[in-house]
UniProtKB/TrEMBL annotation:
Organism: Tanacetum cinerariifolium
Name of a matching Pfam family: RT_RNaseH
Keywords: Endonuclease, Hydrolase, Nuclease, Nucleotidyltransferase, RNA-directed DNA polymerase, Transferase
GO molecular function: endonuclease activity; hydrolase activity; RNA-directed DNA polymerase activity
Domain Reverse transcriptase RNase H-like: 2-94
InterPro entries reported in the protein's UniProt record: DNA/RNA_pol_sf, RT_RNaseH
Keyword Transit peptide applies: no
Record's protein name: Reverse transcriptase domain-containing protein
Lineage: Eukaryota, Viridiplantae, Streptophyta, Embryophyta, Tracheophyta
Length: 94
């Protein structure tokens, strides 16, 4: 019963995510997803865009993640900091 692993990333105009599971040190992809941002989302800060990618991944893969352990990977150091921080801005935590 391995946890699901989410790899999320954002660019200036799109977000993407990969859902996978680790089996014997290798990550086996289950599903890929991406979407282009609308005009309002394209104006987000870099941190907000990276968070948008994580939120999109959880919404897209919701049926896999409900009641299962999941691990999120992101390359954005500020986002890693926010996940560890208890008193982050309300907008980012929503």
């Amino acid at each position: 019963d391995q946890p699901f692993e989410l790899m999320c990333d954002a660019s200036d105009y799109a977000v993407g995510a990969v859902l996978g599971q680790r089996i014997e040190k290798h990550i086996w992809p289950i599903h890929y997803a991406s979407k282009t941002m609308n005009q309002a989302e394209a104006n987000y800060t870099t941190t907000e865009k990276e968070m948008l990618a994580v939120v999109y991944a959880f919404e897209k893969f919701r049926s896999y993640l409900i009641m299962n352990k999941s691990i999120v990977y992101t390359d954005h150091s500020a986002l890693k900091y926010l996940f560890a921080k208890k008193d982050a801005k309300a907008r980012l935590l929503r």
